[in-house]
Amino acid sequence: MLLGITVIVFLIMSLIPGDPATAILGAYATPENVEKLNRDLGLDRPMVERYFIWLGNMLQGDFGRSFSLNRPVIDEVAERFSATLVLAGTSFVLCALFGIAAGVVSAVRQYGLADRLITFAVLIGISVPSFFLGMIMILFFAVRLRWFPVSGMYAIYGGGDLADLLHHLVMPAVALAAVAAGVVARLSRSAMLEVLRQDYIRTARAKGLRERRVIFGHALRSAMVSIIPVLGLQAGFVLSGAVYIETVFQWPGVGRMLVDAILKRDLMLVQGGVVFVAAAYVLFNIAVDVAQALLDPRIKT
Amino acid sequence: MTFRHPTRRGFLASTMSSLAALAAAGAMPRRARAATPPGVLVVGQIAEPKALDPAAVTAVNDFRILVNLYEGLTRYKPGTLEVAPGLATDWTISDDGTVYTFTLREGVRFHDGTPFDAEAVKFNFDRMLDESHPYHDTGPFPLAFFFGSVAKTEALDPRTVRFTLNEPYAPFLSNLAYPTGLIVSPEAVKRHGKEFGRNPVGTGPFRFVEWRSNEAVVIERNPDYWGEKAGTEAVIFRPITDANTRVAEMLAGGIDLMVEVPPTSLAQFRGGGFSIVEQAGPHLWFLILNCKEGPFADKRVRQAANYAINKEAIVNDVLEGTATVAAGPIPPAFNWAYNDALEPYPYDPDKARALIEEAGAAGAKLVFYVTEGGSGMLDPVPMGTAIQADLEAVGFDVEIKTFEWNTFLGQVNPGLEGKADMAEMAWMTNDPDTLPYLALRTEAWPDKGGFNSGYYSNPKVDELLEKARTSTDQAERARLYKEMQVIVHDDAPWVFVANWKQNAVTSDRVKNFRLEPSFLLHLASVVKE
Amino acid sequence: MTAFLQRLARNRLAAAGGAMLALIVLVALAVPLLPLQDPNATATAERFARPLSEGHLLGTDHLGRDLLSRLAHGTRLSLAMGFAAALIAAVLGSVLGIVAGFLGGRVDNVIMRGVDMLMGFPYVLLALAIVAALGPGLVNALIAVAAVNVPFFARNIRGVTVALAGREFVDAARLSGMGNLRIMAVEILPNVLPVIVIALTTTTGWMILETAGLSFLGLGSQPPQADLGSMLGEARAALISHPHVAVVPGVMIFLVVMSINLFGDGVRDALDPRLGAGALTRPLPATVVDRPAPPPLREPDPPALLAIDDLRTEFRLGRRVLPAVDGVSLSLGRGEAVGLVGESGSGKSVTALSVMRLVASPPGVIAGGAVRLDGEEVIGAPFEVLRALRGRRVAYVFQDPQATLHPLYRIGDQLAEAIRAHQPMGARAARVRALELLRDVRMPRPEDRIDDYPHQLSGGQRQRVGIAMALANNPDVIIADEPTTALDVTVQAQILALLERLRRERGLSILFITHDFGVVAQLCERLAVMYAGRIVEEGPTAEVLAAPAHPYTRRLIACVPEPGAGRRRLEAIPGLPPRLDALPPGCAFAPRCHRARPDCGAGDIPLRRAGARAVRCLHPETTP
């Protein structure tokens, strides 16, 4: 599957007009200059040949060198990727936690005040573009109140410890989690409503269990069976949303890097980044499947 | 009634507390931390630099760091685009204009302690130009063609270096002042090879400290600088790609200085602890018209386009006064070559309609290439939209096609023939020669390797430009350029729209800051209180 | 279809969303007719005019264009784009999903691999790359947004199709010689259509939003054309200084997305065949009680362990009120087994569940009467008191052990949980006790079974677990709600024997809910027959069986095949049980009764007692 993705990337990148030399030279990109520079960059060989060279190198752990950043792809991607993991991972945890919590509260208190408030908040969450939300948060919490720094991952002077990271992480993580949390909340709510009507919930209540145990032990556990696959999908959304959030909050992550790399036609960097992201996605989905199987004994074959 | 609130305690409590913990962990102890430390200047850049090797980069964004680390043989006299001595104290030019001999400044050392001498200069130019040079592979050097006329470089003695050109080339001295001509330490190149771009060593007033990818480039005062020492202990360049975020950082005190302030945000900084700095530079924003085919093959229609577009509205309203109306192909910043007598085409839709009527081009359909953004392009989409509305108002039917910058260049540079009638373009150059020579001559049509994408051709203009390029007498060159401007103004191969005034905002703790017409960012004299 | 529309209209939120959406769509359609300014006319001197300024109701944007006009045109375009993109994605995704799900095997593998691959690629980058490759323009942006959504549709639809492909009607179609293509079009498609519609409504809003994201990255529509996304994207540059330019399209996007989502939720609920009435609701922890003061305690004779007194339970569905249990009184002595018999819908199960307030609520409401356990009123007791009684003094055994056991917990854990809910005890001790319980109910090889999940057990074993769970806290009363209905005849007999044995050994009281007189005859001393929410006959089992007084009872008994009695004519009762919201006056059974006379429908008929027996009939079969 990863191989397939690299082929797709190569194909798409070869379909995109414009080449790296144009990107570097900008206004100075005469055909002559472009040709010379492409030769210097080793881009004058046929696409297929370059693909196999790249593939061969990658299998040996060499992801090539980014011409636009003038450094080995693996260094750049590894740095950027860990930044994205911190951001997306936190967001993912937040969105899962808040989404499920909101969904459960909203389902259990169906038609109550909490349900209405949460439903409304969720609707706002899923209908506000995340870059917009991010910008508003910056204006309010960073510029007006000065609670949080505007952008970046660490303080530019001093800092660098965990508290510093958290301090920088709060706003982008929340902004990124908002949309996904909305989706998860909606789904959790309907999954909980569905489960709460099941006969085994009545059984649990007939046993005289405490209501908390009924909701969390019995209902939520069953609802998770349908929530978890959606969490898997949300991981993809969070990664994509990271592109916007990383731009707005100047987070040094892989999403923004990939956009830049596509715009600069930096094939090696796009390839390296996409392979990492796709691998993470695949791993995550395997984890989701495992979690699913652990949760639901009926899946085991 | 506990059973009616079965969930509130368990869930909300746990999730709320986790967020609160996250918030508290960061927010509380650092609330006062917003301001940057004294003596350290934090500059908001528009992007992460590509490399800190002057020969390898092309972006103004990177130049802004480089000119503080490195110096060239010549430099621009502060506040002008005139060439002044840099690492070379003086020079002589042979009468035929092909041999330049420079005397180098004494007692200059690179940051790594190695001496700056004629061999070092020779190393720099050979590395860039000689494909068999052992360190040519530290490239590629995309702007090496600036020095394409250099046939050979010789170190006559440690203090003297001689360049021999294969033809007279007037812009040579100003190209040496351009960042591509900045001198790097040969020893450092040898030591770091391809990684030199991340370990820069020059002779400038600041020396390199560290480059934290996507976070900051830090440079500090060079205590051994040959000239006046820098006014700040250190400068931190932060890449902040999103303009809104940059503005927000500036407002929040996270940076002391930002460049390329979006026009609509300038109002935020008027008064209240900030100062706005502006400086006109050698920039021209224009529309390439397709002179080869379609309605713009007729000179009257091209002039009509110049009359039809309300340039005052564009520079004052769309660009909020961050630009001035352009009159001709050479920006006024090249004051010695600029023709003051030239007046911009006035906004006169009636005259435009009359000319269009006369040429029988009423209702003509035009395809207009617009870019999403790009170096020097200012606000290309709103500007293009305003231009489109103006042209529609005089009876054209204009269809906009937008492209992301690199695709746009890929479309425009090979020529507009068969694709479009007009395209946006902007150039920032260091010599009055560059733009007209590369984009107005017949010999510069795209199929001949130039940027004359609209196929303008006027033998008189060709002749004037060739002459001006080979003359080493500035007065003579000025005369030739002025004549050329009049002709081109009348032929109207382009719509001359705007000359950008570069802007920057500083917090009022920053003193002695000035923008240069060269668009370079010299920070040595800046002080922060 | 009308039922669908009715259900949709009944959901107030969905109706509001639908109305708002309709309004927006109408206005969008009418845009060319409205007296709006030219959306593309620039007047840069008047840029960033505030809302409500002269000549510009919503103000102007960065080029001085009228925001109201651009908003109207932009909404029109965005809606069209959103719907079109969603439709394209839905069609392509559904085709892929159906083909993959239906054909399975290698085709499925190849398609789903491709889909997974696309999903592994962050969608923004995919859209970015597609637009970069295809060139700019609205159509290409539309293609990009649609393309990145194809995988989501394909995945969803495939899942549904796989489930359908194994169903009988598909096999039948295959056997009848239908081609694959035809089966997919005729049999599968109609069945996945609701899922497609639901996915469509939820993605449309998202698509509109996503165009805003693309224009953030500079890939929107071509200027000067307005769509909501690029309006927002263009306004971003002035977000700090002139927020209203961004807020106007932002609010519109919110309204569109919200109305689409509300409407979509309504459509989903209305399409969902499982929901008879209105939206999905969840039952509260205990049935709502809304009754006048409980009836005074009447000392029964002999003193009862569990006394149900004039119990009334209703289902309140919107304005309709269905009296499911209408004044039922029944008592259960210590060690006694009483059968409560009736057709489905007669109210017998609701009566049983009302005892511990387990009727799903909403819609269930206990509207009157009392339940007393050892003389203590239960219905009005605080929840914690009630909870302490559930499972400890009154335990339930439910009908379908497949549905009533939690599918994700091992049976041992479920048993242990039941024990520990009322008896503080460590996990290990609870497990020992659980094992004991399994032995008590004669579970074969309990040591092996205790760690099984419900789905690993047979139906009879599951019901044994259900009974073991009911016994966990040595309750006084077991309410068995059709415990054997879902089981084979032989297993049924074993379970009945088990219950009988437990009752004898432990002195349990059992309230046995069933429709089967054979079962009652085997287990119960006394029985009560229910019809349309009321008890119509009551008495000792043997007597009633021998000489049923109520015509309904007689008919019910006639329905039971008696083992060993040879071929006997089974009489079905003609007609259907009455609708509870349209009960005839007088005897509810009269319309189906062969003995009915005019006076049967005249007025309320009391339950007349004579000794141990009672009957609610003016013209009984026999006079007890």
From TrEMBL, chain A:
TM segment ranges: 81-105, 117-145, 165-187, 219-245, 273-295
Topology with respect to the bilayer: Multi-pass membrane protein
Transmembrane recorded as keyword: yes
Residues of the ABC transmembrane type-1 domain: 81-287
Gene Ontology annotations of biological process type: transmembrane transport
Pfam families: BPD_transp_1, BPD_transp_1_N
Cleaved signal peptide residues: none
Protein name: Peptide/nickel transport system permease protein
From TrEMBL, chain B:
Main localization, broad class: periplasm
Subcellular location(s) of the protein: Periplasm
Gene3D superfamilies on file: Dipeptide-binding Protein, Domain 1, Dipeptide-binding Protein, Domain 3, Periplasmic binding protein-like II
GO cellular component, one term: outer membrane-bounded periplasmic space
MF (Gene Ontology): peptide transmembrane transporter activity
Keyword Signal (UniProt): yes
Keyword annotations: Signal, Transport
A Gene Ontology BP annotation from the UniProt entry: peptide transport
Pfam family of the protein (one): SBP_bac_5
Annotated signal sequence range: 1-34
The Solute-binding protein family domain, residue ranges: 82-439
InterPro entries, per the entry: Peptide/Ni-bd, SBP_5, SBP_5_dom, TAT_signal
Superkingdom of the source species: Bacteria
PANTHER family: OLIGOPEPTIDE-BINDING PROTEIN APPA (PTHR30290:SF9), PERIPLASMIC BINDING COMPONENT OF ABC TRANSPORTER (PTHR30290)
Family: Belongs to the bacterial solute-binding protein 5 family.
Name this protein carries in UniProt: Peptide/nickel transport system substrate-binding protein
Organism for this UniProt entry: Meinhardsimonia xiamenensis
Lineage: Bacteria, Pseudomonadati, Pseudomonadota, Alphaproteobacteria, Rhodobacterales
Automatic annotation (TrEMBL), chain C:
SMART domains, A to Z: AAA (SM00382)
Cross-referenced InterPro entries: AAA+_ATPase, ABC_Ni/Peptide_Import, ABC_transporter-like_ATP-bd, ABC_transporter-like_CS, MetI-like, MetI-like_sf, Oligopep_ABC_C, OppC_N
Transmembrane residue ranges: 12-34, 79-103, 123-148, 188-209, 246-264
Xref: NCBIfam families: oligo_HPY (TIGR01727)
Major localisation: membrane
The entry's keywords: ATP-binding, Cell membrane, Membrane, Nucleotide-binding, Transmembrane, Transmembrane helix, Transport
Boundaries of every ABC transmembrane type-1 domain copy: 75-264
Origin: domain of life: Bacteria
Topology of the protein relative to the lipid bilayer: Peripheral membrane protein; Multi-pass membrane protein
Matching PROSITE patterns: ABC_TM1, ABC_TRANSPORTER_1, ABC_TRANSPORTER_2
Protein name, UniProt field: Peptide/nickel transport system permease protein
Single Gene Ontology MF annotation: ATP binding
Organism field: Meinhardsimonia xiamenensis
Family as reported in the entry's similarity comment: Belongs to the binding-protein-dependent transport system permease family.
A biological process term (GO) from this entry: peptide transport
GO CC annotations, alphabetized: plasma membrane
Domain ABC transporter: start-end pairs: 306-557
Subcellular location: Cell inner membrane; Cell membrane
